[in-house]
Each structure stands twice: as C-alpha cells, then as structure tokens.
Amino acid sequence: MSASEPPKFDEMHAPDGSVRDAYSGYQGWLSEQDDSWMRSKSTEAEGFFRKTGITFNVYGEDDAEERLIPFDLVPRIITGGEWRRLSKGIEQRVRALNAFMHDLYHRQEIIRSGRLPERLFRNNAAWLPQMVGFTPPGGVYTHITGIDLVRTGQDDFLVLEDNARTPSGVSYMLENRETMMAMFPELFSKVNVRPVSDYPRRLAKSLAACAPESTEGQPTIAVLTPGIFNSAYYEHAFLADQMGAELVEGSDLRVVGGKVQMRTTVGYKPVDVLYRRVDDDYLDPLTFNSDSMLGVPGIMDVYRSGGITIANAPGTGVADDKAIYSFMPEIVEFYTGEKALLPNVDTWRCADPDSLKYVLENLAELVVKEVHGSGGYGMLIGPTSSKKEIEEFRGKLENDPDNYIAQPTLALSTCPIFTKAGLAPRHVDLRPFVLCSPDGVDITPGGLTRVALKEGSLVVNSSQGGGTKDSWVLDD
C-alpha cells in the first residue's frame, strides 16, 4: 500500500460514517462542544506542557535542543474487550522474552534446537558475555517493557517491535491523562475510563519485589540518569519524583563495602534497586567502555555478587534487535508451548540472500530498518521516498545486508486529531508499558499513543514530527 491510499481501518468511524461503540460516549460529549472552545483548550494544553517542562531533546539540531511533543485533544479509545484480548498476547510475549533472556545467557536451548541461528547473537553487540551464567535477582531480566503495537483492522493488532532495554515514554502517558482530566473533568464522569495514575506506585512496588535477597527492610530504589542533556531527562526526573525514589547520576554513586552506595548529606547510603536509564556500554567503565563518565566503576561486580538489582538487566538489548524480533513467533512458541497470540509484522531478513534479493527488487514498496535503529532514524519508507533516496539506500543494503530488515508498508489504523478544520484522521501506534516481577506481569491499561500529525505520514516518532494522545481503555 502506498501512503496516499486510504487507510483500511478508522478506529472511530465505521465505513458508513457511523461512530463505533468505543467512541459513542466521547462523541456524545464532543457534539455538545464548540469548536472555538476546543481550539482554546488545545492552546491551553500546550501552555500546560510548556510550563511543566515536558520536553525532549533532538540530537544534532543546534536550533532545537528542546521541543514540546505536540499533544492532541482527541483520545485514542479501546474497549474493555479489546484490551483483555490484547493483554493476554502482551503478557505471553513478555513472559517469553524473559525466558528467552535466561536461556540465551545459560544453556541456549533455543540455539541447540535449531530454532534460532547462533549468528544472531554471536556477532551482536547487545549480547553481553559478562551476563553468561548469571541470573538476576528474582529471575527477572525485563522489569519494564514497551511493546509497540499497530492496528490494521477491527481485531488485527500486530507487534511492530519490542523495547526491552530502556523503554521510554511513560511520563507522557501519565501527563497526557493528567492534562485531559484537568481540562475536561466532566468528560471523565460521562465515560468510564480505567486509570493510569497509579503507574509510579506499581512501578516502585514491582522494582522493590526484585530487590536482592540480602536487602534489609524497605528496599532503596534510585533512578540512574545520564544527566540533564539526555533526551529523556524529564522522564527520569518525573519517575523518580513520582515513585519517591532518588534521582542520581554516576558521580553520585560509588562502590563502598561491596555495595553500590549513593552520596547523601549524612554520608553514603546503600542502593538496593537501580532503575538505570544509561545504556549498557556506559554502565561500568571497568567492564565496558573505559571512557564512560556516566556509570559506576565496579557496579557489575556488585551486581554479579547479588548486591544490587539493575533494571532492566544488562544484556536485554538483544531483544530489541529487529533481526531477533523476526523470530519472536518461534521464540514465543518455544518457551510457552503456545502459538503467539499477537503476530509480528511480516519481516524479510536481509542477511538471507533470497530475502535480500526480494527487498532490493521491491525497495519502492517496502519499509527498511536498521536492526539496531530507533526513533525513526536510519530507515527507508519506500512509497514516500524519492528515487535518489531509494538508490542511496540500495547501496547501504548491498554493502551491509546483515544490518537491515524489511517490512511491508502497512495500512496503519487511524484516529482523529483536532485540526482547525475539525476532526481529521491520522495514523497511530500504541506502546503499552509492562511491569514484570516475581509477583507476576502487570500491564498498565492503555499506554502511549503516538500519532503522525502530517496527513498521510506513517512516521509517528516525536523526533520525526509526531505527537501523542491520551490512551483510554474503557472499564466495561
């Protein structure tokens, strides 16, 4: 499908123009509102976000170091029945991811069985030999996971990618809801929406449940940030504040007496659980990148001795690899004994000669991504690219095919956004946030909906001009 073709599925309106059940309560309220009043509310929301400091950094753009993520007033609504079906598939996938991580760093049964090629992790920078034979406290690798979903039909949800290393965006999910409730309190009395505001409490509880066995009393939780210049610093500070946890940088921590401890006004205090937002390579200069000033020298030794929990576990980035993603149906079945409830998007692995041949012959119709790419960078969207861009990308593929996968250009579902001319459909995706601990899997009802604000665009990333919406799961 080219980007100019009409979408297959409008989440608010049926083909005959009628409003779908999920949106009936909202539409009843919206029909009573004046357009000029809604436009003023849109301006009010922007002011709220700017005052609160909800920004993200754009790397490589000197004139736009900080930007507001555009927020759209029209919520994305999912029925309770749809969410229950989605949740079963999400939980199955996250459990399989954790089992996969444990196996990959232990007996590697999935490799021995021939279900997964050994080359996918032997030459994978995200696979850490330092984790071999070690099981994190509580047996949990992916404490916080973001599963990116797209919709192509009434019951057709597909997994676009997995975010098992340091998934971001949950602060925007929370602030979107708070903004909507502040601006339209009467709306939430008309439509019964499941809450998300308790996510920080649930996150803190889930992390505390993963504390090392040696922990005495209530676990001390800290959020490790690279610092104020990181693109997601706002989120790091927000979550630490909402959890009642400490926000620390590497310079605030040191290994004392076999424990990772943080500097306080009365000396050093042990940290039991570290929610790190620093990539593996910068976590410990004695183990990984010796030039890193962001991590804690010696933290990996403390970790492997059972003295601290690091969330998410080092080495989980293997699951973010888009070549690994292409094997997720086999991974789910191998560890659960069940067929995957949530299917993948069809994927061609360019490392395979036959797949590469097909991709090169059909570049103008496909989406091609780097296996370690993120944020909408390093990718080609064939239908919206010029002939020159396609030919330049062809050279990259031929030069390093192992670095790419390709997928069809999907007819992503649309949700309406509020424009000066009224409601207009735009493409969306959804990132539900999943917490995992020895106590089980906890899925926040909703997640972060990202929306492509440009008409016809399929790119929803904020760094590429996308915005966000409040995501509603109806309590029915």
UniProtKB/TrEMBL annotation:
The record ties this protein, via InterPro entries, to: ATP-dep_Glu-Cys_Ligase-2, CP_ATPgrasp_2, UCP005522
Protein source organism: Aurantiacibacter marinus
From the Swiss-Prot or TrEMBL record, give the protein name. Answer: Circularly permuted ATP-grasp type 2 domain-containing protein
Q: Where is the Circularly permuted ATP-grasp type domain?
A: 75-452
Q: Which Pfam families match?
A: CP_ATPgrasp_2
